[in-house]
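ok so dumb question maybe but i'm new to this and my supervisor (M.) told me to 'just get the structure for Branched-chain amino acid transport system / permease component family protein' and walked off. so i did the thing. is this what she meant?? sequence i used:
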Amino acid sequence: MEIYIISMCVVAGIYAVMALGLNVMWGMAGLVNLGLVGSAAAGAYTSAILTKTFAIPIPLGILAGAIVAAAVGAVLALVTRRLKEHYLAIVTLGFAETIRIVASNEIWLTNGTDGISGIAGPFRADLTPFQYNLVYLGIVLLVLLGLYVCCQRISYSPFGRVLRAVRDDDMVVSVAGKNAQSFKLKAFSIGSGIIGLAGGLYAHYTSFISPDLFVPLLTLYVKLSLLVGGVGNNRGAVVGAALIILILEGSRFVVPFIPYISPAQGAAIRELFLSATLLIVLRFRVTGLVPEPHDHPVIPRPGTATAGTSIKAS
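this is what came out, is it supposed to look like this??
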């Protein structure tokens, strides 16, 4: 039972990392991306291939996966730079499905639908399953903490203020002399890189990945995490991810006590619990459990006075 709880905490931490990446794109810049699993798959497969085939150290493999995911996100942002809202959402959804289909068919690279197994994990051979899960939980928490601090710096920086201005009205940003398309591209690339890093963490934790793991439902879970926690707030992203995993896994122990239902119906009821939670939260907390603050104080650079709140970015 202890291993199961620790494992769910690891998964919740990985979800929180993905939610932070989504918050950069959607919460700060207002870019609707339904292709999160595409970026996660790019990071996971890159890290898995490099570490297993070329014996690259795990940290470098995960970093390379994040860089590849960021590059793919930048290309996608360039292709979709003129699209907004639901048009952007449809194209990004198609992008994720394209990545999954490519992974299913390019057997020479990804081993097709059989997936890649035996992916190295840090200290896996030297530790018991309990110790390994505990160590990996520490690694995920350290990565999550580091990314949270970085995302907070972005949020309160001049760059973050421009992103929120782009989200609210990109025409005003253009009139103010800023290149809105450039800031959107940067936000998309940063968010995709963070999500790719989460994909790499997941690959090395489970030691197995396949195209079937990267389905649109994962994107919905991450978006629900941010919706419930609070769009535009990094703390909300972390809180929402923890809550979503708690409901998904906690309902697993409730369903067996419901009489006269099949296993398939039980799985559907678990999704119903998740939907009901979202409706309840949004009914009473429209902006999420941890709403985005109305004011974002400026973090001054060393040796300078506190700046104003104008949309300046270096």
